[in-house]
Each structure stands twice: as C-alpha cells, then as structure tokens.
Specification:
1004 residues; mainly alpha; 5-stranded parallel beta sheet; globular
Length: 1004
C-alpha cells in the first residue's frame, strides 16, 4: 500500500499490542484498544460508528460515547501513524486509520496482523497435509500456534472482545486438535500423550480430543488407560448433556476392545477413520448443514438401495427371573409345534390387570428366543395406558422401526399405508422378533404386524385384544397372579433365602398384602434390601397399617386404589427431597427424563437431582432404562400424579412445569446457534431463576442432544399448549428449526409447528403467528408439500407486512421464491426473489441481498440467461466475501461453476468449483462439498480429464452415501458410464439447486 510503513505490526492473539520495528507502542486504555481491535478484526473493511459503539460499550452507551470514540481514534492515529505529517495528500496516502462514511477502516499490509499470519499458516498446512506432507504440515501448524501470546483479545472490555475472543479461542483449539491429529498420525503418539491428557481435562466435552488421547494411549501400549479415557468422557457426556458419545468415539472404543490391528500401524498420510455409522441425517442445502463425519470409500458398483440394519432393541432381561413356568412352557410350545413362528402372540392379563408382570415375562421370553431370529429384534413401548395420554401412534412406531432398520428420515413415506408397506417390505424374507409393549387396542397393533411369515410378534396389553386373536390368529397367553410358591421365589431371589425362612409368617403376610403382584413385591423387596436390619415382621406391620388393602387388585377393579398401599409405603420410605422429586415427575409429559431436566423440574442443582434419582431408582420407584435417562412405570406415574396434586399447591405445580418447559426451550436455544449459526435469533421469555440450561461446545453435541430429547421436545410443545403457555408453544418449534431441517423429522416438525401456530393465534400473538406461519411453511416445504408451503409463506409475508417487520417480510418473500424454485415454477421464482431482493435492499439487510442475488442467479442459469446469472452471482459473491458469509459464498461459487460449464468454459468452471470446495470445507459444509465434487467431475470429464472426473465422483459418492442421499444413485450412474462416449453438451443443465441438484442460498 502506497506510503505505509511496513515496520508497524499488530497482535490480537493475546493482549492487543502494536510495534514499530522493535519498539512497542502505547495503545492507551482498554477501551481505546477495543476500538483498535474492532478495526483490526475487519482487516481493511469499514466499521460503522454504531458497530464501533456496540463493540466497546454494548447496548448501553455513555452519554458522550460518540465524542469519546472519536477521541480514541484520534489518539490511535497519533500513536500508530507516521509522525511529522501535517496533512495534505501525502498525509492522506500515509493514513493508517482512514475515515469512511461515519466510521473508519484500518489499512494493513498482508503480514501486518498476527491473526492473518496464523490463518495463512493454517491454510497452507491443510494443503500440505492433503498432499501427504505431514511433517511440513505439523511444523507449520506448530509455528501458527506458537504465534499466540495468550487468550485472544485478553483484557479488553465490551461485547466484541467476548464474542470474538471465544471464536478465536475455538479456532486455536481446533488448530491444536489438527496438529495433535497429525502428530498421532505420524507415529509421534508418545510425544503428545501428556498434552492430550491436559487438554481433555480442560475440555472434557470435546470428543475429538478424547479420540486422539485414546489412540495415542493405545499405540503407546496403554490399552487400559485408553479405555478409561473413554469411560470418563462417556460419564461426563451422559451426566452433563444426557447424550452418549458420538459414533466415531464409540467405534474407536470397540476397535480397541477388539485389538483391531489397523489401529497399530496405519499408512502415512491416511488418518484413522471410524467405521461409518448408519445414516442419521439427510442432505441439507449448503446454506444450513455442515455435518462432517467421514465415510469409508464406497464402491461405485454398490446398489443404490437401503440395506436393513440388524437391530437389537430388546430391554435388558431381569437378572434373576423366577416363576411363570407354566406360561413360559405354553409360550415355548407355540414355537416347538411348527417350523415357522406364529404371526403374533398376545400376552395379556385377565381383566386388563396392570403390574402383573407382562413386560417382564415378554422381555425374558424374547431374550430366550432371540437366537431363533438372527435378523434382529425390534421393541417399542406403545404407551397405550400412559396416564399423560401420550399414546404412540402406529405411524410413530413404524418410523421408530424403520429408523432402526436403517431407513433415514427422508426416505420414510408420509402416509401410514405407505409406511406400513415399506416396513413389511423390509421384514419380508427375514426372521425378526418384534415386541410391542403396552398396546391399547387392536387398531394400534395391526399396522405393526409383518406381512409375511418368519417373524415372531409378542404383544403385551391390559386388554385382551380379541380382535387380534380372531382376525390375525394371535395366540392369547393370559397372565394371572403369581402362585404363592412363585411369589416366595420372587422374594427369595431378591432377599436371599435366610430372611424369608426365618420369618415365614411375616413373609406370607407380605405376599398376601402385595396380592402376589410382581411390581408390588419388587418394591417391598427393594425396601427390605435397603434395610437389612429390619425384620420382615416390621415391614409386614407397616403394610398392614397402611390405608386400604389390595383385595380389589385381584378383582380387576381400578388398581390405583389399592396398590396405593404399597406405593405410599415405599414413597414414605425415601428422603423428603427424593419424595418431592418423585411426585414432581408426575407432571412431566415426555416418555423419559434426564438428570439435568429433572433438576430443572425440581429447581435443584444437577448434582443434587442426580443423587435423588439414584435414590428413587434404588427404591424401585424409578427405572434408569438408559444411562442417565429415567422413566416411571405407568402405575407409578399415576401415583406420582396423584401425590403431586395432593401435596403441591397449584402455584408450585405451575412453577415446576414452567421451569421444565423453560429448560427445554432455553437448552434448545443454546443448541440453535451451533446448528444454524446465521439465522436470526428468536427472542425468548425470561429464564426462571432456578433453571440452568445446558451449554454446547460443538455442533455434533447440539444435534445429538436434540435427537436424544426429540420425543420429549415434541411432548413439551404439546404440554405447553395444554397448560396455557402459548409463548413456549410457538418459540420451541422456532428454535428447533435447524434440527428438524437437518434431520428431516418432517412428521414431528409439521405437528409441532401446527401446534405453535394454533397457540399463537389463540393468544392473539401476531408476531408469534407470523413466526409460526413461516416455520410451518418451512416444515411443509421440507416434506414436499410445496403448494401448502407456498400458501403459508404468503400468509407469513402478509403477517410480517402488517407488523411492519420488513426484515422478516423480506425473508418470507425470499423463501416463497425459493419454494417456487423447488417446484420448478421459475417465472414465479424470479418474481418473488426479485421482490425479496427489493425488500432486503430497503431494510438494509446486506446478507439478505446477497442470498437473493445468489438464488436469482441460479434461476437465471436454469433459464439459460447466462449474462444475467453471472451479473447476479458476481454481485452476490462480492457481498458474501465483504460481509464474511462464507456459507453462501460456497453456494454462489458452485453456481458460477455451473454457468461456465454450461457455456463450455471448462477451465473457468473447474476453477470456480475448486474455490467452492475450499469454501465448503472451511465451513464444514459436507453436503455442499459432495454436490460440488459431482459438478467438478462433470466439468473434468467434459474437459477430457476422465481420471480426474472419476476421482471427483468417487469422493462425491462417499459423501452422498454417508448421508444416504438420492444423488448417490446419479453419481454411481455417471461412474458406470465412464467407458461411454461423453458429449459435454449433454451435461446436466441444472445441476444446480435442490437435493438432486445444487443447494440454494436458503432464506434467513
């Protein structure tokens, strides 16, 4: 730059500092340094006055903030600009801090900022690593890391320092992970173990660090420590987030247990890869998704079909199952009498008796028979008698089964008939065991029955389901009470033989008062085990003194009346805090609950809540059905609901429900910026004082939490609607937008957005209604219901217009145009994207303008209007680069490549595609990377580079198979035609915009 003194250099990777030559400059007060930092971080781009004020003081500016800020700039100029310049043209040319509009920019040489040097070294190291030059890459990354002098922007006040400091700290940690990965890959695992141990201690939630530590320990001959590192990380993830480790970490754990030889020696330049997990996420437009797991190379000849997985979903069998010999013999006889298993077997109780042990028997028998069904076992709790009314519908159950069989959400049909057909097709010619637990009626069960022989179906229900027996040939297996001998065996199995033998009369009384009910016996036995010094006579006396008896239990009347004697006795035996938590659990509507959610419900610290959950589990009042996740037996849920209404006041109940729902909302909002970092945030209602939502450090953690809690989140939306909380009802779907978009759980998405819309309308919340209309429109669009989506986007557009929210209106208009683009109505797409562009320009949304221009360029290239397409796309590219929207920058570069490929300018096309690939990889947009690789292969083949095309397509295929995306079939087809003559003019004209084409820049 003309006149600039190259000896001045700046640092932000640590305290903000500056030097001229070897002399450090005095940059003044922390606030003055914050102004300099704001200018330095924009690196030659203008920073407006309002942005500078916000960077230093946030929303609360002092009265004289503008004049103070200009004073800071004047002082900075005196310090960092060349001395002796009084003014004039020469001085202007030598200005470092330049006035632009109402703000400023700072002129920097290429190597004048340590952050720029750091980024250049990291980028060069990536290139070297890709070329297999690991030593050089490691050396360059180490040099990049050594340039840091502490936490970025250390000691600066203001919001900018907080947000940018955290972002830069994350970049440093990611770079450190990359360096450590290369060092382990190079065989220098011994040298980095100590640093990895330190880092995993500081960052216990970062699974990549744990993976590297495990691998380094294992290669150092420390297998036990590697496995211990996994267990420690797993405990932390379960305890803090309620989720299991991701597939790569679990896979490495399994390979270490198996002493996988490939972990010991790995070819240089090839990092250890995890075995590919079953597809869990669909493709998403490049403006949203950045799923970044790796996939093993895929053969081009592999068939483009969904391969059914081998599920093993049965709950754990009881460790000491006793009794039910006669029933088991009858069940076993059903299989021994024929070569093929029966189409279904019904296990029910006489009169619909609850707590009789149906599930326990079914699970035990299923485990016993599982070897006869080598293709796997499916299980679902249909919740037919759940006191909250949370019945699992047949389509929900089938979606659970199809997911277990390896069908990704986008491949699951919308209607129940189509779902049933796919489910039965998946089970055809397979020997599967299916356990349908807690069915309400025949209609709930019938769609879940396989369509061909070879499968065993076990159904449990309180009802006799005679329609299943008559219509489907089911074999009823009614359960009665345990015999006296079986009841004795149950107690002996849990207590040992000494105590029942020593007190036979007390034992008989306990059995009698428990009505030989397995559930009641288990609870009483748990209390006796917890108090080994209590004589059984004292326990029998306590039962005797409890209100009521269990006589009505045997008569088939309402069990909740008399089983209360056993439940209340056990309930009173736990500590008062545990009893309070137990009854509050009766307010929760979801199928299970994590320790952090239970803590929010009760307004307790997580550590305290976890201890109470353990106490309730030991008392058999609660079941830990999965590590860190707890559920109530449906009878205990009824009892808990009774107790909470009897012992907690209405305000206390309202407060507990409000805390739980707020916890779900605010934790989902904490996941929101990790999943969709560029979308406008949703304003939330205040957080209750006792509510401590989770925090996430990675996108994968955020997605895993949403997936684990999906059923509870859906239930929370409906509970919020039913309990008069319309704000949470529409806000929770809004902050879950990105999760449902990426994972394509479209049935749930449409369901909760409809509930949100109804709630906002009932509350006459116009802003909420507009947001819910836009969210429902997006859900409908994602499910392929484009006409309905367009209608709802139009309504959202009108609602935002009436509210005067021009920014949101521009987004709705743009999304309407995008919906027309998906449906192939290009004339309408042009019309509405242009309208959206006009609105975005009026409201001054630069990003919105760039997105509209990118989409408009895509429409024009589809229409063959290439000059107009290039004009729009180049404008969009300039905006995206100026304002650091790299996501849409990658999309725009890809579309530019397609334009040049269609114009037979193959060298230019290849250049744009390579730029797009670099951008996709920088932001982690895996699906955008796969699509661009496919387009790059087309251009390379047209340029007579068949080997390069084959390589690009193979890389694309690996990514599409990773997501089980339909474009995998297209890539396989291209690879299969490699030997045929290729006419470049026949390359796809619209490899551009949708799944099956190119991603567009999604509306904000």
């Amino acid at each position: 730059m003309s006149g600039y003194e190259p000896s001045v250099r700046f640092a932000v990777l640590g305290p903000v500092r500056a030097w001229r030559g070897e002399q450090e400059l005095d940059l003044g007060s922390p606030q003055q340094r914050a102004v300099l930092a704001a200018l330095l971080l924009r690196r030659g781009r203008a920073v407006g006055l309002a942005e500078l004020l916000d960077a230093v003081w946030g929303e609360e500016h002092p009265v004289a903030a503008v004049s103070v800020l200009r004073t800071y700039v004047s002082r900075l100029r005196k310090v960092i600009e060349p001395s002796g310049e009084a003014g004039g043209e020469a001085a202007g040319n030598r200005r470092v801090v330049v006035s632009v509009g109402d703000g400023y920019l700072i002129r920097l040489p290429e190597d004048g900022l340590d952050l720029t040097v750091f980024e250049q070294r990291v980028t060069r190291a990536r290139t070297l690593r890709a070329a297999g030059e690991l030593a050089a890459a490691a050396e360059l990354l180490r040099a990049a890391l050594d340039g840091w002098q502490g936490a970025a922007l250390a000691g600066l006040p203001g919001p900018l320092a907080g947000s940018e400091g955290a972002r830069l700290g994350e970049e440093r940690l990611a770079t450190l992970e990359t360096w450590l990965d290369i060092e382990v890959e190079r065989g220098r695992h011994g040298e980095v173990v100590a640093e990895l141990i330190t880092l995993t201690g500081k960052h216990p939630l970062r699974e990549q660090l744990c993976r590297l530590l495990m691998l380094a320990l294992y290669r150092s001959g420390r297998q036990a420590e590697a496995l211990a590192a996994y267990r420690a990380t797993r405990r932390t993830l379960v305890a803090e987030l309620g989720i299991e480790p991701g597939a790569p970490l679990r896979d490495l754990h399994d390979r270490i247990l198996a002493a996988d030889e490939t972990l010991d020696v790995w070819p240089p330049g090839q990092p250890v890869q995890a075995s590919p997990p079953p597809p869990a996420a669909p493709a998403a437009p490049a403006s949203l998704s950045s799923l970044s797991s790796t996939a093993d190379p895929v053969s081009p000849a592999a068939p483009a079909v969904v391969h059914a997985a081998r599920p093993a979903q049965l709950p754990a069998d009881l460790a000491a199952f006793v009794g039910r010999s006669a029933e088991l013999d009858r069940a076993r006889a059903l299989l021994s009498e024929r070569d093929d298993p029966p189409s279904s077997v019904l296990i029910s109780s006489i009169g619909g008796m609850a707590g009789i042990g149906k599930t326990t028997l079914a699970v035990h028998w299923a485990h016993e028979m599982s070897d006869l069904f080598p293709d796997g076992q499916l299980y679902v709790n249909l919740r037919g008698f759940d006191p909250t009314g949370s019945l699992v519908t047949p389509d929900e159950a089938i979606r659970i089964f199809l997911g277990a069989l390896g069908v990704p959400p986008p491949r699951i049909p919308a209607g129940l008939d189509a779902q049933t057909a796919l489910y039965r097709s998946m089970l055809a010619q397979r020997r599967m065991l299916v356990l349908l637990d807690n069915a309400r009626d025949t209609d709930q069960v019938r769609p879940l029955l396989p369509g061909s022989s070879g499968c065993l179906v076990i159904v449990t229900s309180r009802n006799q389901l005679t329609g299943l027996v008559v219509g489907e040939g089911a074999h009823p297996l009614p359960l009665g009470q345990l015999s006296s001998a079986e009841a004795h065996a149950v107690l002996t199995g849990r207590l040992g033989a000494d105590r029942p033998t020593a007190e036979p009369r007390a034992t008989e009384e306990i059995i009698t008062r428990c009505a030989r009910l397995p559930l009641a016996l288990a609870i009483v036995a748990a209390h006796a085990v917890a108090h080994p010094d209590f004589p059984l006579s004292a326990i029998a006396e306590e039962l005797r003194d409890s209100h009521g008896s269990l006589d009505a239990f045997a008569s088939g009347d309402d069990i909740t009346t008399d089983v209360r004697a056993v439940f209340s006795w056990s309930y009173k035996a736990v500590s008062p805090p545990a009893a309070r938590l137990f009854r509050l659990l009766g307010l929760q509507s979801g199928p299970d609950i994590s320790a952090p959610a239970a803590a929010a419900l009760a307004g307790l610290p997580v550590r305290e809540a976890r201890g109470l959950l353990v106490e309730l589990t030991r008392a058999n009042l609660l079941t830990e059905h999965f590590p860190g996740r707890y559920t109530l037996h449906d009878l205990l849920r009824v009892y808990a609901a009774e107790r909470v209404h009897a012992e907690e006041t209405p305000p206390e109940r309202e407060r507990a429900v409000g805390q739980l729902l707020a916890w779900y909302l605010h934790t989902a909002d904490a996941a929101y910026p990790h999943i969709t970092p560029q979308r406008r945030r949703i304003p939330l209602e205040p957080l209750p004082a006792a509510c401590r939502p989770l925090e996430f450090t990675t996108r994968d953690q955020a997605l895993d939490w949403c997936e684990t809690e999906r059923a509870n989140l859906v239930a929370a939306v409906h509970q919020a609607a039913g309990s008069g909380r319309p704000g949470i009802t529409w806000r929770l779907p809004a902050v879950l937008w990105g999760f449902f978009y990426l994972r394509s759980h479209t049935h749930d998405w449409v369901d909760i957005t409809r509930a949100g819309l109804a709630a906002a309308r009932s509350d006459d919340d116009r802003w909420g209604e507009a947001q819910a209309l836009a969210d429902l429109a997006a859900a409908l669009r994602n499910s392929g219901r484009l006409d309905e989506a367009a209608d709802h986007f139009r309504r959202a557009m009108i609602a935002y217009r009436d509210l005067g929210d021009a920014d949101a209106r521009g987004s709705a208009v743009t999304n309407l145009g995008d919906t027309y683009l998906q449906s192939g109505r290009l004339d309408k797409a042009v019309e509405y994207i242009r309208r959206g562009l006009a609105v975005e320009r009026v409201v001054g949304s630069v990003w919105g303008v760039g997105i509209c221009l990118s989409n408009l360029g895509d429409v024009y290239q589809r229409l063959g209007r290439f000059d107009e397409a290039v004009g729009c796309l180049e404008q969009a590219l300039d905006i995206m680069r100026t304002h650091d929207n790299r996501w849409v920058e990658g999309v725009t570069l890809d579309i530019l490549g397609t334009v040049h490929r269609r114009l037979h300018r193959y060298d230019d096309a290849v250049g744009y595609y390579h730029e797009a690939l670099k951008t996709h990889r920088d932001v982690g947009n895996r699906w955008g990377e796969g699509h661009t690789l496919g387009n790059l292969g087309d251009a390379q083949l047209a340029a007579d580079e068949p080997e390069a095309a084959r390589d690009s397509w193979r890389q694309a295929l690996a990514i599409f198979v990773e997501f089980d995306h339909q474009d995998a079939a297209k890539i396989r087809e291209r690879l299969g035609r490699m030997k045929d003559d290729h006419d470049p003019a026949e390359a796809p004209a619209e490899a551009g915009t949708r799944p099956g084409d190119t991603p567009t820049a999604e509306g904000r």
